[in-house]
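Table S5 (text form). Sequence records supplied for joint modeling of the two-component complex.
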Amino acid sequence: MSDKQYSVKDYYCKHTTRCSSETIKDSKRFVGQDILKADAEDKVTGKAVYANDITFDDMLYLKVKRAVHPHAILKDIDTSKAKKVKGVVDIFTAEDIPDLRKFGLIIRDQPVLVALGKTMRYLGDALAVVAAESIEAAKKAVDLIEVKIEELEVITDPFRAMEADAVNIHPDGNILITHNLETGDVEAGFAESDIIVERKYQTQFIDQLPMQNEAGTAFYDERKGRVNIWAATQWLHDIQADVAQSLRLAKDQIRIIQPTIGGAFGKKEDVSVHIHLAIAAMRTGRPVKLTFSREESMITQSKRHPITIINKTGVSSDGYLKAWQTKFIGDTGAYASSGPAVVHKGMYHATGPYNVENIKGISHAVYTNNTYAGAMRGFGTTQGAFAYESQMDIMAHELKMDPAEFRQKNIYQLGSCTPNGQRLNHSVNAEETIKKVMELSGWKGGK
Amino acid sequence: MKKKGRGLATIMFGFGYGEGFPDHSIASIEIKADQRIVIKTAAADVGQGVITTVIQIAAEILRIKPDYFEVIQGDTHTTKNSGSTSATRQTYFTGNAVKKAAEDLLANLYHYGSMEFRSNHPEISIKDGEIYLYEEPEYSISYWDLAAKLKDKGITLEAEGSFFPVTYQPDEKGQADKVYVAYTFLSQVIEVEVDTDTGIIDLLNVYTAVDLGKAINPKNVEGQIEGGTVQGLGMAVMEEQVIRNGRTLNAGMSDYLVPTSVDIPKFKHYLIEDQDSEGPFGAKGVGEPTIIAAAPALANAVYDAIGIRFYDLPLNPSKVKKALEEQDNKN
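The corresponding C-alpha cell record, covering 778 residues in total, follows.
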C-alpha cells in the first residue's frame, strides 16, 4: 500500500491549447484561416505530456504474460518462480479475480485474463499480469511464468473458419455477423448488360502504426473509491463504461483522463492497458504504469481487416452501370472489436459514388485465430474502394472509354440514391471532384 | 526500364456512425472574468486538429480572437460525451456542438449587454470581445467585465450545446431513408514510374480534388490529404503485417515497412467548398476519405504503366517483378 495521498489535480497535465492569431490576415474571420494547430508548439518542443510521461515516486511497472499459442486451452499456470524475482510485488491471473466480465467495443467477447480451462484465441490474449518495482523485474518474472496448454486447430483463414468441420473459436460459431444488401433486380440488370466483369480482390492485414504505442498510468483513490487512469483513448466515455462493467464498478468509479495522444488511426478505439491498470492499482494500492512495446502493440491490438471482395458488374455498351453484385468476406481475427461494423460498411459503399439501380450484396465478418481486426481509417471502405475503383477501370478499358468519362457518366448527382436507398439531398459535388482533378493533373484523352 | 503511368480513382465516404446509432456530441463554453474562454469537450485530438477546429468555430461565432480560447484536457469527470474521434465525425459533430454552445453564449451576451445598457438588442454591437452601443461606441463593456459583474450576481456566462442528428438502422436488405448523415466525395490522380527490372514503384505526383463543404482550416485539410494519401500508398505498395499460423512474422519497425519521407510524392489539391452541408459553416468530414482513393488510383496507374492488373495488395517489388516476368514469358 502506498503511504502517499495522491490527488488528480497535482498531476493535471495542462495542455497549452492556445491558438495564436498572428498569422491571420483578415482579423474578423477565423473560420477558413490557416491557424497554427493549438498543440503544435508543445509537441515540437517536447512540452506535450503523453501518458508515458506521467510518473509517480512509488510507481510499479506492469508487464503482461501473453498467450503462448494462437488457439489452445489453458490447463495450468504456475507463477511461483516468477513471484520469487526480486522486486516483484504482485502477480495476478483470472483465478485471483473470479468475477471479471468480458469487454469489447460492440460485442463483449474478449476476456480480461484467460481463466483455467478457458481458451486463448490469439497470441495477444492476457494470461497474467506482473507488477514490479522495475520494468526489468517485471519482464524477468513474465518469462518465468510457466503455462501448460492443450492445443486446438489454429484457424488462420476465414474460408476455413466457415467450413462445417472447423472448430468453433467462439461458442456461437465462426461467422460473427452477416449483412445483406439488396435493391432493384440484379438478375434483370445483368440481362440488360452488354459487358459483365467479375473479379476477386484481396486486401491485407495492416497495422495503423501510430507513433505512440499503447501506454497508461493509473492510481487508486481509496477515499473516493475511484481509479484514475491516464491513457490515450479515442473515446473516453465508451472506454470508461467498458472498464467499469468488466470490473463490476459504477461508471463514476473509473475516471479516464486524456493525455496528449500520439496518433491513433483507429487503433486506440479498443481497450488496451486500461483494465489491467485498474486491477493492478486497486490490488497494490500503488500507482502503476503499463507500456506496450511495438512488437506487443502489433500482436495485441487491432488490425485493418483483410477482406476478400468479389465484384460482378454489368454495364451497357454505351457505358451505363446496370447491375452490381458483391460479396465481402472479412477476417476479423480472434475478437469482434469493431468487426461487426467494419465489413458491412465496406459493402454499403461497394459500388462507389455511382448510380446503379440493381444491387445485391452479402458480407460476413469471420473469426479466426489471427490478431483481431478492428477500426482503421476508412473502416472497410478503404478495402472496398480498391475493388470498386479497379473494377471501374477494367470496365472503362473493356468499353474502350476514357476512365474519367466513364466515371462521369455514372457519377452521383443531387437526388441520386445510395445502395442503402438513401436519397442524396444535399452536398453532392462528386462530379466536380472529377472535373477538378482532371484540370489539376492535365488529364486528357484517357490519361 | 522505367515506365510511367497515371491512374484515377473517385470515392465516397458516408461519415458519422450512422445506421441508427445514437451518435452525438456535447460541448460547453464559459467566458471567465480572467480573460479566458474555456471550451469543454471530450473530443480526442489524435493530431488531426479538432482542438484548433473548435477554437476557430467558437472564435468566429463569438467574434473574438482565437488567442483567448482554451480547450480543457479530456476527462470523463469534467467533460460530457463527445463520441469517438473516428468515423470522420468530430468536425461535423463536435464542431456543431461547439457552434451551438457559442451561439447560445452570443445570444446571452446580447441579452446581458442589453440589460447593462438598458437598450434594445439591435442597438448593441459586439466586436473583438467588447459589447457596445452601436450609436455610442464609447459605452462599452468587455466580455471579462460582464462575466465579473454577472458572477457577483451568481450568474455564470456559460452555455452547453449538443448535436444529435437522426439516422436510421437499415432493414434486412440494408435499406433505410438515411443511413449516414452525409457523404464526402474525393477524386485523385496518381502518377507513378515502375522500374521493370526491380519491380519498384516510384510515387511521382498526386492530384486531389475533395468535396468537403467548407475547410475550417485549409492547412489542416492539406495535412489530412497528404497524410491520408501517404498512408493509403503504404497500403498500396508496401505495408503488410504478415501473420502465418497465427504468428506475426514482422512485428517491429525494422520488418514492417511504411512510407518514409523519401517515398513521399508531390501534392497538388483543390478544395470544393460549396458550404452546402449541415456541418458547421457547411463543413463535411475529411479524415478518412483522404486515405481511400490512394490504393486504387495507384493500382490503376500501374496498369497504365505496364499493362498488368493487380488484384491483391500490396504491390510490393517482388510481386510486381514476378508479374512482369510472367508477362515477358507470355510475349
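Note: Chain B has two domains: 2-15+181-330, 25-163.
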